[in-house]
Amino acid sequence: MLRGAVVICCIGVACSGIAQENTADTKKQLKLKPGQVLHQAAPAANSKPSAQIAVYKSVKADGTAFFSDRQPLNRPYQLLRFDCFACDPVSKINWHTVPLYVKPYNRIIAKAATEHQLDPALIRAVIHAESSFRPQVISKKGAVGLMQLMPQTSATLGVQDANHPEQNINAGSRYLAQLLKQHNNDLTLALAAYNAGPGNVKRYNGIPPFAETQAYVERVVILHKRYQQQS
């Protein structure tokens, strides 16, 4: 699954990077719309930059979508750039103050929460961590959409279009509910399984000793509590 913020840029449109952390004394909660982000402060000179990949999406004359790691010539394109976000162990973001997405997909999230008996704040926290509320995201591993569903997971859950917000959120919520049940409603274990796979949680009899997974679990828990406070 994708573990980061993604920027989708069309020709002639300036797009910004990952959300900027706020100062600790910020009192008013910032609220974002889908696709709206704030610039992060520049990293320290000695800090190691996150790995990046670039994927270009264009549409051929016959309507076929084409993905490449090279910029298309003579036709419009979208640039999908991946920067590690919720699971970067050395992230400089303050997860206690990073702006929240409190309104996008309210109806869809509420419906999925009711159907799968989940806290809507948890669904929103996972979407925030996985895709930063960008429905067209495709990770370098092939995970797709708001809740970053892997193709095999999508197939198992009967998803026809993983980019479709309602299908993605419903399937991702269903999968999350299954993981919670599988791990006796232990949220941290369910989140670890969502990130690293149930097999790794079973193998290590707990949260796997992966820096990415440990950071992911910690940050989703923080986001979950913050979204609960906004509901």
Automatic annotation (TrEMBL):
Cross-referenced Pfam families: SLT
UniProt keyword list: Signal
Domain Transglycosylase SLT: 109-214
CDD domains xrefs: LT-like
Signal sequence interval, chain numbering: 1-19
InterPro entries hit by this protein: Lysozyme-like_dom_sf, Transglyc_AS, Transglycosylase_SLT_dom_1
Recorded family membership: Belongs to the transglycosylase Slt family.
PANTHER family, per database record: MEMBRANE-BOUND LYTIC MUREIN TRANSGLYCOSYLASE C (PTHR37423:SF2), SOLUBLE LYTIC MUREIN TRANSGLYCOSYLASE-RELATED (PTHR37423)
Protein name: Lytic transglycosylase domain-containing protein
Classification of source organism: Bacteria, Pseudomonadati, Pseudomonadota, Gammaproteobacteria, Chromatiales
